[in-house]
Amino acid sequence: MSRFLAYRLHAPTAGASAPAARFVELDVDHLSPGEVLVRVAWSSLNYKDALAAAGINAIVRQYPRIGGIDLTGTVAASSDARFREGDPVVVHGFGIGVDHDGGHAQYARVKADWAMPLPAGLSLREAATLGAAGYTAGLCLHWMEHNGLAPARGKVVVSGATGGVGSIAIDMLAGRGYAVTALTGKAAELDYLRTLGAAEILPAEVAKATGKPLDPAQWAGAVDAVGGEVLAWMLRTLQPDGVATAFGNAAGAQFDATVLPFILRGVKLIGINANSPMALRSEVWAKIADAYRPRHLDLVANEIAFQDIPEAMARMLARQSRGRYLVRMEG
Ligand SMILES: NC(=O)c1ccc[n+]([C@@H]2O[C@H](COP(=O)([O-])OP(=O)(O)OC[C@H]3O[C@@H](n4cnc5c(N)ncnc54)[C@H](OP(=O)(O)O)[C@@H]3O)[C@@H](O)[C@H]2O)c1
């Protein structure tokens, strides 16, 4: 097989904190081992990819490493009987892009246990637009509904609303009949959020400490991308039996809370880790392709060429991005 292109992170040079990232030509033998060789059609940029490439939070510890925590493509070769050449697959998590070479290359080699057949009803492009972010949004909805959330219960608030997970969560929730409130720091994106289905949009500043253990109850559900004061505010303002899902920490890893929302209102807080076992992935992806299917993936997707990865990552870190960066690996 001919050589192919990869965007690879190399150990930081002396005095630098960020890895040295560059496009390189590789052979398949350079890739982390695995039974399934995938010709990558699409990858994406998740916040974690941008943090890893910038050397923030020591996400990557062994170099060189190809980033990219999600990818979609077709099987080019497999030594595992579950996959045959040409099969369309989706891979995210399981350490790809972190401690195993990931999706920011034209080929990836992964363990067969990590490769999920493309869910029926989705194209490779749609599945990559969703990617780890769409799966996270779907997982939030799955666990909230499992814990009693239904449209008739009331409004659902989504923080980090213009981000990858937030955008898809709004789209999924609104499509399923929920009244969605978007919490955003981007006053310029109100039209975007309304088109996705947000019925109400609040500036992120409303989510400030009040010094009280409980504030007026507003939400039946809450999807939190940012942590810190925002998560604390959500817990104080959930309705009785309301349910919050938490998966991010850009606004802070710590949050100030009391037990009162839990013991007086029966509020539930569910931690979301998208690196879930395959059985749960398959179950939730099947819902994402059908009952949870977002209606505005074309609006959420910002398609970029492979060589545009560095610039797009910088925009993500500067909080200047919106929706999902979809990386076209072919051509
Ligand atoms: N636990 C898991 O398994 C899991 C899975 C997926 C993602 N995550 C995490 O979830 C978070 C969101 O991921 P993503 O892919 O949606 O990222 P993203 O596309 O970069 O979006 C994050 C959004 O959060 C808001 N935001 C950014 N910086 C902020 C800050 N300092 N304070 C408050 N809000 C801020 C912005 O929205 P507005 O400008 O609209 O406010 C931004 O668009 C990331 O921290 C990511 O690492 C975790």
From TrEMBL:
Residues 16-327 form the Enoyl reductase (ER) domain. CDD domains: MDR_yhdh_yhfp. It comes from the Bacteria. InterPro entries: Acrylyl-CoA_reductase_AcuI (IPR014188), ADH-like_C (IPR013149), ADH-like_N (IPR013154), ER (IPR020843), GroES-like_sf (IPR011032), NAD(P)-bd_dom_sf (IPR036291), Zn-ADH-like_protein (IPR051397). NCBIfam families: oxido_YhdH. This is Oxidoreductase. It comes from Cupriavidus campinensis.
